[in-house]
Specification:
The protein has 208 residues and is mainly alpha-helical. It has a single domain, classed as Tetracycline Repressor, domain 2. It is 80% helix and 0% strand. It has nine helices and no strands. The radius of gyration is 20 Å and the shape is elongated. The N and C termini lie far apart (65 Å).
Length: 208
Amino acid sequence: MKENTNIRRKRRRDLIEATIAVIAEHGYAGTTVSRVAKQAQVSAGLMNFHFDGKDMLFQAVFEHLDAEFEAVWREHLAAVDDDPAARLEAMVEAYFDRRILTAEKLPVWFTFWADAALRDRYRAAATRVELRYSKELAAEIKRLLAAPPQAVPKSQLMRRTRDIAAPLIAMIDGYWLQAILNPGRFSHRAAIQDCLNFVQACLARDRS
């Protein structure tokens, strides 16, 4: 029984990965059960056994990408101590982890955010994903701003946190877009360093 469960789980994952490849190439409108079945080298009947239609496929893909990002995020944080600078660096690195930022997965994320047929359906869920990590980033920025020897006054702390966190999130989103538009010129390490340099410049200005 356990062996059968493992086989079904692996087959389901293979079908999700095949769907990701098809979405990346054809977008929402061009993704069909038959194309996914062909990509996965299985029959349409087997596809229908695991996923009852295109909508279920897209739901499974969204949940898969969300869970994968969460696992990578927690893995990066587990590798550092409670120092806010180290945690912030780990978070930025997680955004640009090569398991997340791939030629196939990036277009799929943008499909969920931008495709007219999907964005209303997944807007709330995608917003929750964005807010979850944005809040964690902001929390570490707030800790850095509140740290001695020249801590930002409490009356200014929330505003300064937002002043740094909001542009940082925009930078990350912008680099994700660059990774799609110019994949040959995109550098994961340079993007990470640019984001961290921005935060350091903001902190230095507050402490000068």
